[in-house]
Amino acid sequence: MNVPEPKYEDCIIFLLAKAYQKAHSTFKKRLIDYGLTPIQHLILEALWQEDGQSAGDIGKKLVLDGATLSGVLDRLAAGNWIKKEPDPDDKRMIRVYLAEKVKTLRPRLAAERNRANEEILHNLTLEEKVLLKRLLRDVHA
Fold first, then answer.
1. Structure confidence by residue, pLDDT tens digits, 84-102
2. Residue 2: inside a domain, yes or no?
3. Which of 24, 36, 37, 95 has the highest local Cβ count within 10 Å?
4. DSSP-assigned states of every residue in 109-134
5. Beta bridge pairs of residue 83
6. CA angle at 67 for the pair 66 and 71, rounded to the nearest 5°
7. C-alpha to C-alpha distance for 40 and 57, rounded to whole angstroms
8. Looking at residue 49, which CATH number applies to its domain?
């Protein structure tokens, strides 16, 4: 018995990839005036939750490999978004701190993120938004 191949439009990998592309593009457009990328913003968000984390801890929390994280942190430091300092107790470890300009821009950047989320999810009901978040958390867990 031949089982028909599913259409690519019904493939979860395709659907997730297209949803990611739309979300990434929408947020990227909102951040362009700030000179930030979505991944840079994500790192700033992690530091807003806990400033002074080690680079390794940021990578673990955001599931970023060391090479990717290192490059992003270097660009954030070059743009004066963050400061990288050796850990006082372990000089081999780098601690990452928010620069002052980020602290003052936080409300505006958070508003941009919220507007991007609303734009991406505008066709969904509140219940659908809650369900989508739960399902996405379950998928990546």
1. 999 888 888 999 999 999 9
2. no
3. 36
4. HHHHHHHHHHHHHTTS-HHHHHHHHH
5. 97
6. 115
7. 16
8. 1.10.10.10
